Amino acid sequence: MLDEQITYYRERAREYDASLNQPDRLAEAATRTTPLDQEFGAAMDALGRLGPFDHALELACGTGIWTAVALPRVARLTALDAAPEMLELHRRKLADPRIRYQQADLFAWEPAREYDFVFFAFWLSHVPRDLLDGFLDTLRRAVRPGGQLFCVDEPEGTHNAVAPPGAGHRQARRLADGREFTVVKVYYDPQDVEARLAQHGFTAIQVTRGDYFFWLTATRAP
Length: 222
Ligand SMILES: C[S@@+](CC[C@H](N)C(=O)[O-])C[C@H]1O[C@@H](n2cnc3c(N)ncnc32)[C@H](O)[C@@H]1O
Fold this sequence. Notes:
- With 222 residues, the chain is an alpha/beta fold.
- It is built from seven helices and nine strands.
- The strands form two sheets. It has a seven-stranded mixed β-sheet, with helices on both faces. A two-stranded antiparallel ribbon has the order 6-7.
- Strand 6 and strand 7 form a beta hairpin.
- Helix 1 packs parallel to helix 5.
- The radius of gyration is 16 Å and the shape is globular.
- Bound molecules: S-adenosylmethionine.
- The site of S-adenosylmethionine has 20 residues, from helix 1.
């Protein structure tokens, strides 16, 4: 299923932004009309307030929606994703010399260095429960002591309009041409994520839970 998840996103790359109704989501606060868009915008604002940072790392960067929010506050950014099609779209959309690209499968990835800031949007829910601790351990090794973490995703128990909960941790996803894929989708309890981050060496964890999304910041303990 992890391979199918990558295949799905490789195939979805070119329709990804349109499928998220991007113009509304990226609009200025005043024109964020629906509660979902307002919350999405609040999460973006939270990311945009962090920093400044020297070297940031974004995991599962996709087409760069969240990269664009963080970029004004970073000197250098490494954008990582498993899907070359996502990275190519990202490169074309953002076209910024501060960005370096890395194609990697996060379930087989080992950070080559420590970063001042690591962030990811809508990635955690694609990490199966039995691989979560392993991922958080790798994540700790990617953040320098005193460095920061930001994450946004969909929590359990929401009336979720982005991706309705499927059975268990699997979800069927359909592309515009009708092809169907099965991906991992785990709606984590933000309190559980907070507790596990603490176990994996993070401190000062601040969680904001909304009706649709949750986002958090944390610091890697010295
Ligand atoms: C829900 S999208 C999120 C994209 C972006 N962060 C955003 O919020 O718009 C999930 C991303 O994870 C990437 N991905 C899926 N499996 C992966 C893996 N094993 N390693 C790295 N990236 C992966 C996909 O290519 C896709 O870009």
